[in-house]
Amino acid sequence: MYKNDRLNLILDILKRRKTISMQELQALTFSSNSTLRRDVITLEQDNKVIRKYGQVELVKSKNVEFPYQFRNQEHETEKIAIANMATDFIGDNMALFLDSSSSVSKLIPYLEQKRNLIVVTNGLFTAVALNQYSNVKTFLTGGRLRTGSGSVLGGFALDYLNKFTADIAFISCSSVDGEGIYMSSAEQSNIKQKMQNSAKQTILLCDSSKVGHRNYYKLCELSGISALITDKEPGADLVAQLKANDVELLY
């Protein structure tokens, strides 16, 4: 079994059990003691699990920003479907803000079909992927690269964004409910807010696993976005609040 498959298997087990002994986890994963130990160390370094007293515990996702490689694999089918719907908002000759989220990065393959786009992003992996398209003029913010996240953050990045305006800002979030849109990182929120304030409209891409929850840091009210694109119909409360704030809902 490949390493990523083993890591995902461990996480799937922990999502059901929350806490499990190393001995039992070894039996369920059919791994050697040394292989399991290395895999658990990898997950611990990525803030996915905690090791203590011969047990492994799943880190609660609230208020934790996980590395890009994990975020990019989670709910990938749903994110691709969401990105496909989002392309209907993009026309030729547009300027776009793309945040560094894995959800927004799924838009990239669809941009090849458009002509003469300008994209400004704080996403390192997003900028690298866009580099292959001659129809897209890509601008990457300066600033501090947060380890593992692929995100360029901080004052330099905010100052750089001051130089641009855009037709659309495409952003994602940690969670959304009827009271607003949330993030687990103030630094990430600052970048997204700057993009929102400098764009004619903001479109939120958010898979259904993030709907109906909240984090400690509020990115904005629902009125701060023009549209929410997700993969399933949200609960009645959120639907009603989106309608009250004149936010278009697509799923």
UniProtKB/TrEMBL annotation:
Listed InterPro entries: Carb_Metab_HTH_regulators (IPR050313), DeoR-like_C (IPR014036), DeoR_HTH (IPR001034), NagB/RpiA_transferase-like (IPR037171), Tscrpt_reg_HTH_DeoR_CS (IPR018356), WH_DNA-bd_sf (IPR036390)
UniProt keyword Secreted present: no
Record's keyword terms, sorted: DNA-binding, Repressor, Transcription, Transcription regulation
PROSITE patterns: HTH_DEOR_1, HTH_DEOR_2
Function: Repressor of the lactose catabolism operon. Galactose-6-phosphate is the inducer.
Domain HTH deoR-type: 3-58
Keyword hit for Lipid metabolism: no
GO molecular function: DNA binding
Protein name, UniProt field: Lactose phosphotransferase system repressor
